Automatic annotation (TrEMBL):
Matches recorded under InterPro entries: Calycin, DUF1934
Protein name (database record): DUF1934 family (YwiB)
Species name: Eupransor demetentiae
Gene3D superfamilies (UniProt xref): 2.40.128.20
Database matches in SUPFAM superfamilies: Lipocalins
């Protein structure tokens, strides 16, 4: 399946930090493309009072990549119990951050265009923990183009 399939995406992120917990969720139309052993899920994230962000998840057997394009671009990688470095763009310039996935749960049926992802990870700057994150992602075929 190399063609793009229209899907409905539900994304939720919970952030646990010393300064207080926060969460947000996004429901948006998206597209799913499967090429070889990789699947790509894209959608536009539009949160109140914030600029639009293009989101791309890439799923492979060994891990997950998350690319976010908007006012700041981020390219994060997640592999279970592995530390992965990335540059986080800020208005003040790039910061070197690290992710470590503590849990990755996947239940995908790519032929049917549906799936669920549960991802827990810790975000570090150097040895300092910036926060713990829980991401829940669900996608399913978009039944109507009128939605």
């Amino acid at each position: 399946m190399a063609d793009s399939q229209a899907v409905q995406v539900h994304f939720m992120s919970k952030i646990y930090q010393d300064g207080g917990d926060e969460s947000y969720q996004v429901d948006a139309p998206g597209s799913l493309i499967v090429r070889g052993d990789s699947a790509y899920l894209t959608y536009i994230e539009q949160l109140p009072d914030q600029d639009e962000v293009e989101v791309l998840f890439k799923f492979k057997d060994e891990g997950i990549r998350l690319n976010r394009k908007g006012p700041q671009n981020n390219h994060m990688a997640f592999e279970l119990d592995q530390k992965r470095n990335f540059k986080y763009e800020t208005a003040a310039g790039p910061m070197q951050l690290t992710t470590r996935a503590t849990e990755i749960e996947r239940d995908f049926d790519l032929e049917a265009g549906r799936g669920e992802l549960g991802l827990n990870y810790i975000l570090y700057q150097g040895d300092q923990v910036l926060g713990q994150y829980r991401v829940e992602l669900q996608f399913e075929p978009k039944l109507s183009t009128l939605d």
